[in-house]
Amino acid sequence: MTERFGGALREWRRRRRVSQLELAVRAGTTQRHVSFLESGRSAPGRAMIIRLAESLEVPVRERNDLLLAAGFAPAYPRSALDSPELAPVRAALEHVLRGHLPYPAVVVDRHGDLVSANAAFHRLTRGADPALLEPPMSVARFLLHPRGLAPRIVNLGEWAWHVVDRVRAEAARNPDERLVALAAELAGLAPPRPAQPGLHHLGFAVPLRLRDTDDRELSLITTLTHFGTAVDVTIAELRLEAFLPADAATAAALGRS
Fold it and tell me: Which of 223, 228, 221 is nearest to 250 (CA)?
């Protein structure tokens, strides 16, 4: 058990590019103790596992795996989203989605599959291949697919690679086979990466320039929000992605939609 936990801890520390000393300082222990835990010479306590996992920003799903590897029961429940226990969370999410109108917003799970969306986002899906909208609907696939939103994206080269790079970064940070496969699929959908940044390039903040059904060009920026204090696996893995107008013309156009 201790060797299994030690290997998993070492892998997470390597993934986060944190030294044993830095991890020890973050978790309030010693480098010697971290070294002994990784080598299997010491057995961790439950509280220490949670402190180490928090220090390495390990997702709660994988924190349960660390606890299991050390012989402890999982600490974080995984409730079904439609369960009575999560009714207040569902109500809060729907309230946020409605409150974001007239701008598009979605709630997605850890794989980027749609959990819920507001009416403004559903308007963006008009004319898309119905197959792309079938559950589980991948929002990223819908955005970049030639039978989805891609034909309406003015800066598809920049935006597509912005999306691909973000999914790749998430797959590298929190490895998951489905995310790795999705990143590869999206890279295949994307046009060649632009050799030079476009006129509207803002580094990591790549605006989505989109033509609406009236052939108006809209400029949107995105924000990502998650439950930073969630202790339920399902809640912790939800993410709200909201599209905001990047200029007054876009705000006015969406306001009239």
Answer: 221
Name the fold adopted by 2-69. 434 Repressor (Amino-terminal Domain) (1.10.260)
Neighbours of 218 (CB within 10 A): 23
Q: Which comes out higher in pLDDT, residue 6 or 199? A: 6
Separation between Cα atoms, residue 111 and residue 183, nearest integer Å:
11
CA triple 107-16-168, angle to 5 deg: 45
Q: Does domain 84-255 have CATH number 3.30.1330.30?
A: no
- The DSSP symbol for 196 reads S
Q: What is the pLDDT of residues 75-109, one digit of tens each?
A: 999 999 999 999 999 999 999 999 999 999 999 99
Which tokens is 202 given?
A: 């803002």
Whole-structure pTM value: 0.89
Q: Within 10 A of 10 (CB to CB), how many other CB atoms are there?
A: 16
